[in-house]
Amino acid sequence: MGGERLGWDIASLHQALAYRFATLADHFASVHADEGTVWLFDEERQALKPVWNSGPNAIAFVGQHWQPLSVGLVSLVFMTGQALCENRVYWHSGQDPTLDHALGLLTCSMIIVPLCVRGETCGVVSCVKLKRADSLEPDPPPFTAADLGRITEVVQGLGCGLDVNA
What we know:
Beta-Lactamase, 6 helices, 166 residues, alpha+beta, 6-stranded antiparallel beta sheet
């Protein structure tokens, strides 16, 4: 990312991904995630922008929230290119609770996988298990290594063969 122009733009990448969102939602459900999000890198803002979410709160943050690259687990995965499966996310010092606070939710578990197109990391895909921030209920069952493997495979397939304008 050292000042070089990326080989894609956010609008063309979003358009190329759009027809795959319904299938992605099915995969999130298969690992018992409450919802999932596609985050794309916005070069101008140097931030990750949620461009799609499968959950009921999508309208509250898709296209409106920007995740700075300097904070948060989704940014960590984007910057390192390494997938992450974290349970008890709210205890992780790298978790940015800004979006949770805005939505009145608590992220309990999260899988985050880098989204690569033409060998470049262009964003991340995350899926989460949530509960209301004020809930006294126990956390939902954690994600497993098998869940991480399944979502990683799906996201890797998602980025392969996309027709994105350079």
